[in-house]
């Protein structure tokens, strides 16, 4: 009897626009994908829906569902459609956000809602909201002041000292990730963090206590995709080693095993800073600082220039992730 080959398991954690870039390029590869999505967003259509119906903000989840869905482009366009009418309620809302809000009420929670939606949208992989309740992101800045709420923290444009999450519904109870998230982390071959805003997209997931504990204990290779540009206020003047240092300090251990760093220069005067007003400057490479933290460094051209902004080339990044997975599988085979 021929034993069925086990597909490598990869867990991608984050939020914002960076997560779908990786997932779109992972879809169709010979891997078992789990996307762990932050539930601490409180801006835009997501924030308005959260205020009205008290559900987890759906924006990041909507984009992840679309990135892994195998449905036709027209259905995905409909799901992503954002109303531009003058209706006081619908204007500015994405249709998918309303669907997720409705399913959340029907299923009495975001986790079961997303599992149902994944079936409807024919998702290739697993999508797990990190918690089954809306969370609030909190930050203390280097000047000692504190703020709550992702949009408020981002808008402050101040240097952040550290962040943490709290339940928006049960302030006296520490939030916990759902069991499926922890099981995915412990069973993974590779865990990918980023790309995305360091303090407001990546760390909100990691600051849930049982997620941090799982990352410290897992035998999976933890890969961090370092941002190409610094972000105004959040990471101004940060090197790539500074990004990794913040992650390790928040997790109270050197958790990052491998870091992917872009070394292709962004052309001078290319960035439209009025359009991409969160971008500050290109992240400086600090190889020595990275090595001091015990992580393997893979530096290459991961740059994609579009719309006068600097972004990750998802295909090149995923090719490197697949190479790393191949090395892990080879070691496991040799160890038998």
Describe this structure in words.
One of its GO terms (biological process) is regulation of cell shape. Belongs to the gluconeogenesis factor family. GO terms for molecular function: LPPG:FO 2-phospho-L-lactate transferase activity. It is found in: Cytoplasm. The protein has 336 residues and is α/β, with parallel strands linked by helices. It contains 13 helices and 14 strands. The chain has two domains: 235 residues, CofD-like domains (Rossmann fold, 3-Layer(aba) Sandwich), CATH 3.40.50; 83 residues, no CATH class. 40% of the residues lie in helices and 20% in strands. The longest helix has 21 residues. The relative contact order is 0.13.
